Amino acid sequence: MDQVRIAGVGQTPFGKYLGVGVRTMAEQALDAALLDAQMEVGRIGAVYFANALSGLITGQETIRGQVALRHTGLMGKPIINVDNACASGSTALHLAWSAVASGQVDVALAIGSEQLTHADKAVTFAAYASGVDVEEREAQDRHAPSDRSVFMDIYAERTRRYMQRSGATPRDFAMITVKSRQAASLNPLAQFRTPTTIEEVLSARMVSEPLTLPMCSPIADGAAAVILVRGAASAASRRSVYVRSSTLVSANADGVDPVCAVRAANGAYEKAGIGPHDIHVAEVHDASAPAEIMLYEHLGFAGRNEGVRLVRDGVTSVGGSLPVNPGGGLLSRGHPVGATGLAQIVELTTQLRGEAGARQRHGAKVALAECSGGNLGLDSAVAAVTILSV
């Protein structure tokens, strides 16, 4: 397999942009990535376009990437549409990496754009509900809620089990949100940039016990893009960032341990020839605040039931020895589903280049991104882990 380098990254600000559209945001992210790479669009040999839920909201299905990119100079190139729930962007990156590493193309683009805002929130929440086995849900006579994402009920159930076995408390989860907002306050592309307090998080509206509203990732629109090229840089003016490994797995047939995040991480570590102790900075799928703590354990950053220690001790905060979600994570940067996994790569590339400003993890040389998606039984349906290094 050939060496694969990140030549350019780009991202729009994440937020609620009713009426802006998938195409406009995709064009903005692409332009930013091309500018960052100092590259002409014609050099791109293959495109992997991530979009998970917008089709259910806007009505544009099947040729989403071709429609979104039709005015960009990419038409005529192979454009592959990627839908893999919340891991859509990470999956697009995995496919782009595979194409470049195998020598199929010299340059590949992974791009994700998502329009989730709708005048009727019930439409958006119904779209989220498609990320589970609908037949299983109907057999259990469970109806998708119209006032929230069905995933918050799923995360709440997992959280209650985790609290019983680990001793974690709602205050610990509030600390994750506070950490997230503090990081996002330093990221001009984040959706929620106003710091908050533990008391404000705990006293907010309850969504699904014990998750209050700030503990849940928001509805967001946005786009992100990553350009991958084959080979080492010849005369780079900045630090070159390489994809050290990329893994993608689905849930076990019975949906039990080892969960897919664990297996994806173990595969990525093995391929990269490193372990969890070698990671300097990470971005993980904090669709809910407790999910971040559980992922500390799944990724090997902490032992079983010991993830809360990392947040209590400030290890994973900006300025800590292992900052997690320094860009604000899904909780505060925002979660436009198809773009999320690529926004993680944008943040980690910025960190490894040493260009993250006040949220910089000094001396960062190795980074990890984890993104999960959907739900099957007791597990996420899919998980992707990417390791980057300089």
UniProtKB/TrEMBL annotation:
It is an enzyme of class 2 (transferase). GO terms for molecular function: acetyl-CoA C-acyltransferase activity; lipid binding. Keywords: Lipid transport, Lipid-binding, Transferase, Transport. Pfam families: Thiolase_C_1, Thiolase_N. Residues 5-230 form the Thiolase N-terminal domain. SUPFAM superfamilies: Thiolase-like. GO terms for biological process: lipid transport. Gene3D superfamilies: 3.40.47.10. Residues 252-377 form the Thiolase C-terminal domain. Its EC number is 2.3.1.176. The keyword Transferase applies. It comes from the Bacteria. CDD domains: SCP-x_thiolase. This is propanoyl-CoA C-acyltransferase.
